[in-house]
Specification:
It contains eight helices and five strands, in the order H-H-E-E-E-H-H-H-H-H-H-E-E. The N and C termini lie far apart (about 60 Å). Helix content is about 40%, strand content about 10%. By secondary structure, it is mainly alpha-helical. It is elongated, with a radius of gyration of 25 Å. The protein has helices at about 1-15, 20-35, 85-95, 125-135, 155-165, 170-175, 180-190, 195-200, and strands spanning about 55-60, 65-70, 75-80, 215, 220. Strands 1-2-3 form a three-stranded antiparallel β-sheet, with no helix packed on it. Strands 4-5 form a two-stranded antiparallel sheet. The protein has a domain at about 1-140: Topoisomerase I, Chain A, domain 3 (Alpha-Beta Complex), CATH 3.90.15.
């Protein structure tokens, strides 16, 4: 997150950096944050209908926001309140770029002949992701098994893991993110007994033995 933010700030201050690159860096940073605080599956750009649309957001009666997804499975992911600022920022950003009626959350802010038109959706942030990993010395060469590489899907895992740490019920979390309790348990739960000692031992049904006394034959006296 810090890398993406600093890259944008450096681009913003750079006099020879194009507006396209500045806008792209800014949206990449917002994209990272949005996925990390919703836990949705990040679109890879191969299926256009899976890209984020403004119409995918539903509002609850008390002002909450839900991101409706129909990618691998149908699910309604609650958007953490801390992510609202990123959504509001994206909408304001698009308005400033003349994209008031844009249906896409992440869109090109100018045209590039032969590639895209202003207002077209950004299909993926693959190049920005690869550049970031290389700069952070986290990039693994082509051919490395997918399970060993750091991919955008890891942000979904981050959200799930943090939710579990905060005590969110695994069954409810699974329902809201279109997955299963078994998948969460096997893939995302980083349970550590040492970290959960207080809770695990709080309700233990073992009586306090106190200071042990012994009889003349060497047997402990468990009660007076």
């Amino acid at each position: 997150m810090n890398f993406a933010r600093e890259k944008y700030e450096n681009a913003r201050e750079g006099k020879r950096v194009s507006r396209i690159d500045k806008d792209s860096a800014l949206q990449f940073w917002a994209w990272l944050n949005l996925i990390s605080w919703t836990g949705v599956r990040p679109p890879n750009g191969t299926v256009k209908k899976n890209l984020f649309r403004w119409d995918d957001i539903r509002y609850t009666r008390d002002g909450g926001r839900i991101l409706v997804r129909k990618d691998k499975t149908d699910y309604n992911a609650p958007i953490l309140e801390r992510a609202y600022d990123y959504l509001d920022f994206l909408r304001d950003f698009q308005v400033k770029r003349g994209l008031e009626d844009c249906e896409w959350m992440f869109a090109h802010t100018s045209s590039k002949a032969g590639y895209w038109e202003k207002g077209d959706p950004i299909l993926s942030f693959k190049k920005q992701w690869e550049y970031m990993l290389k700069a952070l010395d986290l990039w693994l060469p082509w051919g490395t098994p997918q399970s060993e590489k750091l991919v955008p899907y890891a942000m979904r895992g981050f959200h799930i893991t943090m939710s579990l740490r905060e005590g969110i019920d695994a069954r409810k979390l699974a329902k809201s993110l279109g997955t299963s309790v078994r998948m969460i348990d096997q893939t995302y739960d980083d349970f550590q007994t040492e970290a959960e000692m207080d809770e695990l031992t709080r309700r233990a049904g073992i009586a306090e033995i106190g200071k042990v006394k012994w009889d003349e034959n060497g047997y402990p006296i468990l009660r007076e």
